[in-house]
Amino acid sequence: MAFIDAPTNFFIGGKYDPSTDEVAIDDAVYYDSRDLTTHGLVLGMTGSGKTGLCVCLLEEAILDGIPAIIIDPKGDIGNLLLTFPELLASDFEPWIDPDEARRKGNDVTTHAAEKAELWRGGLGKWGITSERLQQLKDAADYTIYTPGSTAGVPISILASLKAPKQDFDTHAESLREEINGIVTAILSLAGISAEPVKDAEHVFLSNIFEHNWRQGKDLTMEDIIVQVQEPPFDKLGVMPVNQLYPDKERMSLAMALNNVIAAPSFQAWLEGVPMDMQSLLYTPEGKPRVSIFYTAHLDDTERMFVMTLVLETLLAWLRTQSGTSSLRALLYIDEIFGYFPPVSNPPSKEPLLRLLKQARAFGLGVLMATQNPVDLDYKGLSNIGTWWIGRLQSERDRERVMSGLQEAATSGDMDLAAVEQLVAQVKSRIFLMRNVHDKGATTLFSSRWAMNYLAGPLTRTQISTLMESRDAAKLIEPTQKVVASTPVVMATASETSGQGLPSGFDDSKPVVSGVDEFFLPIKSSASAAIQKWEDDTRSRADSSDDAQLAYIPVLLAQANVLYDDRKSDIRVERTYAFHIEDLDSSGFVTWKEYQVEPADRRDIDTKARGEALYGEVPTSLIDSSRLKSLKDDLEEVIYKDFSVMLPYNQSLEAYGHPDDDPGVFEAKLAQLAREQRDAEVDKVTADYDKKYDRLEDQRERKQRELQKDEARAATKNQNSIINIGEGIFNLVTGKRTSSSISKIGRAVSSRGAANAEVEETKEEIIAIEREMEDLKQELETALQDVRAKWDEVAQQKGEYEVTPYKKNIALDIFGVGWVPYWYFKSEGQSKFVSAYE
Ligand SMILES: Nc1ncnc2c1ncn2[C@@H]1O[C@H](COP(=O)(O)OP(=O)(O)O)[C@@H](O)[C@H]1O
Ligand SMILES: [Mg+2]
After folding, report:
1. Is the dihedral of CA 128, 134, 139, 140 positive or negative?
2. What is the mean pLDDT of the chain?
């Protein structure tokens, strides 16, 4: 068995021994997924295998159900879609670089066959099966987004200008940070470099955002340009706008922004799926997504803009999540160069720093790679928990990394000089891993074979091919709430009275006393309503121009209900509306039959608007004592029968909000289950580790016996250290890492047994080793069971009923409701169609 396929433990490679220059494939190296929540940085020169290692980490994360957002400035990461479980030459062929084939003296087909063989061999060696490849392919939905281009899936930046769902004042601090970031990004796109708080255009634009967002208003670029010219407020702080930021300057800002949207290429920025983090991370069913932002086709400014927006959108999404100790999602930036420099302050820097600081609590791991350590901000590096250092050729880079390591070190237990010497000469794919969670211990290893075909940068045509089958519209489904409505379409013919009024109607409003009156809003115009009536009934109106507004009275009840449940700690608001036209004939009211779609409270007037016809008011509608008892009855009915159902998982004691976007609750369950699973993995592993320790002790005793017998024989020191020095050797092998299955996951075969003289002791050692091997197998099975158990738990979905408290039922709209209709004629007959639909 090459490695233990277990949850929580990412299989990333095999130990590397610098003294023999060998990679021990069966001495697997694992990485505890939880350690990624303190972020990881991969350093190494071009070709050192950074992207390969990160692809391995991503593959493990995806297999474990972790969604990922990936920023791909070089275009390599689309390789995550090249998963070929059968490893056929024909799978590889479309992705072969013809130039590379030619250089190797191959035609494309031969070259594809060679690559397929290379991958088959590499994966085989590392014990990776085609089932695992298939699992990887199935584990997530993969999408390549190409902002500003339709080569892949285009993505609209407009969604990021949407007002946040949270209350502004409660989240003022973080929302202002978000605004700062977006404003900086927008200004940079307009070629203006302005600093938050300091520069007038920045302060001004930020105020426009705040002003609109406070009122829950979404913004578009057009809105922003209009409001720059005509600000929706007079003052900035205590100063008049005109004094701080005069007309002329506002005009030139508006022009600059206008140039941005006037550029033909800008249209492409508006098209596509909205940049909504929840939908970029999960499907509506809660399945993880891998969303790759391909930015290789963009210029520096545009790339910076995309990066900043992704970071800000991610930060905003994080704030809506609950805390967790397990890994929830990954952000991978393949080439961090330019986004996080030491001295200058590009728009991406501040949000990235904020993200590094805040992400941990929410389980977001940030993984970054760079070939230019010198270009990384020093402060930011202290937020990185794991360093993977590959080959670094330049002395400046090495020095930088060593001083960074020193800074991040928890104890001065590292021989930096030795490390520096090592990284100057290691081969590609060899990395020194330093993880703060391993108490500063380091591991020297080679990355395992990547499961995906590392074809290198994909061309735009290749990306189109990969994304062609997908329908962008299908990727992110709109969340529509369906509200049951009972349309009151009344199209009965009635006699016309002498003055041309339909019978039962008057052109002045009947006097209603002692009862509240409400006028419902007109939702469809006469022409639209009549057109619809014509289509539905296949008839024709005599003319739709002279349609008249006619109000028909109903008993109108509209209740606002707050469901405030202590146990689930979830609050849901619902509005229910009822229209009863024939109150005279309905004695006992079955309210649900009269339920209609509620009107927005703000659209309900208490006075008529303009001229209209009015229907007769049934006597029971103005019977105030009857109304009073109906009101009490309705309150009782809502209390008893109008409950709301929350999605519920009993095992995890988790409740969902019924108004959440699809997939949110599923993702929450997956995360809760993951936390419990990770804890159980630790426990199970600790139990096995104990058993394993005992066997190891036994084996050691037996080996000492053997050694006594061998004492006479000359032994040569197998551990002589060649060329790199003792410092490294201790550094690499001296300490145990904390990765939960590292100990038992190690190779068991001992080299000592080979020289045994006493057959019996040899046999005994072999028997102990067999037990150890069995134990490894048992552990794998036990951990797989743990995974299966919690996967199962996360799938359970039930419902939890919440009924309202009486005090939370507000029946403030109760009385005569005037429902608008359009009155017109068809073949001389009077017709009415609802204007309230
Ligand atoms: N884990 C891996 N499995 C298989 N091949 C790898 C792996 N890592 C790197 N390689 C090979 O080495 C080449 C260079 O590695 P890459 O990760 O692209 O380097 P870097 O990102 O540091 O420039 C890749 O194109 C690939 O052929
Ligand atoms: Mg790379």
Report:
1. positive
2. 86
CA of 428 to the centre of ligand 1 (A): 8
Q: Does residue 739 register a pLDDT over 60?
A: no
- Give the integer Cα–Cα distance in Å for 744 and 694: 12
pLDDT score, position 478: 38
**DSSP H or E stretch at residue 273:** strand 273-274
What tokens does 683 get? 């426990």
Distance in Å, CA 336 to ligand 2 centroid: 11
State residue 458's pLDDT score: 93
SS3 for 537?
helix
Span from the CA of 54 to the centroid of ligand 1 (angstroms): 10
Strand pairing class (9-17; 22-32): antiparallel
- Number of Cβ within 10 Å of residue 377's Cβ equals 20
Can you tell me the distance from the alpha carbon of 777 to that of 688, in angstroms, rounded to the nearest whole number?
11
Q: What is the pLDDT of residues 376-386, one digit of tens each?
A: 887 778 889 99
Question: Is pLDDT above 80 for 635?
Answer: yes
The dihedral sign for the CA sequence 538, 540, 545, 546 = negative
pLDDT of residue 381: 81
| Nearest-CA residue for atom 12 of ligand 1 | 49
Q: Whose CA is nearest to atom 14 of ligand 1?
A: 47
pLDDT tens, residue by residue, 96-150: 999 999 999 999 999 999 999 999 999 999 999 999 999 999 999 999 999 888 8
Q: Is the CB of 181 under 6 A from ligand 1?
A: no
Distance of CA 297 from the midpoint of ligand 2 (Å): 17
C-beta of residue 654 within 8 angstroms of C-beta of residue 648: yes
C-alpha of 497 from chain center: 64
Contact 318/364 with Cβ under 8 angstroms?
yes
Q: From the DSSP assignment, how many helices (H) and strands (E) are in the chain?
A: 24, 26
Q: What token pair was written down for 271?
A: 């098209």
Q: Cβ of 301: how many Cβ atoms within 10 Å?
A: 14
Which residues, in sequence order, are CB contacts of 782 under 8 Å at separation 6+?
684, 688
